[in-house]
Specification:
mainly beta, ten-stranded antiparallel beta sheet, 10 strands, about 0% helix, globular
């Protein structure tokens, strides 16, 4: 299963109530009912900070209670959803990091942790922090419903 190939090639569109650009720091800050899209990827947040270098976006940091993410990983697949109080998106690395009260789910499978990394191109998920055993990962995988024949 791989993400829609065209997502990383698409421009990022951002809508918000307010926007502020700091040319010296090469950052843009968007606040108030923010949503950003790139192909099939959508991020909803209360605040989004975009970091740029030489005209290219290097990182987006979305915050909210929580900030939310969704993506269609491939045609015919179920959408994948994620949320966390702080989410970092690195478009050039196809990497999304969910932090603090983070959860990622697709269909009946769900992972929750304080730290989750998601590779948006290859649909790979890594949850938990190796530095701490106290921050556990909680996973729920529900079996598919079997259709029962009437007797």
């Amino acid at each position: 299963m791989s993400a829609l190939e065209t997502d990383s090639e698409q421009p990022i569109y951002i809508d918000s109530n307010k926007a502020y650009y700091d040319e010296k720091q090469q950052t843009s800050t968007y606040t108030g009912n923010v949503f950003a899209t790139q192909g099939s990827i959508r991020i909803d947040a209360e605040k989004l900070v975009v970091y740029m270098k030489d005209g290219n976006i290097t990182k987006l940091v979305a915050t909210g209670t929580p900030s939310k993410f969704k993506q269609l990983p491939a045609v015919g697949k179920e959408e994948i959803y994620g949320e966390g109080l702080i989410n970092e998106f690195y478009p050039d690395k196809n990497l999304l990091i969910f932090m603090q009260n983070a959860s990622v789910w697709q269909g009946d499978a769900k992972q929750s942790s304080e730290y989750i990394e998601y590779d948006t191109k290859n649909s790979l998920l890594k949850a938990g922090e190796t530095a701490s055993d106290s921050k556990r990962v909680h996973s729920v995988i529900k079996p598919k419903q079997q259709s029962r024949k009437a007797e």
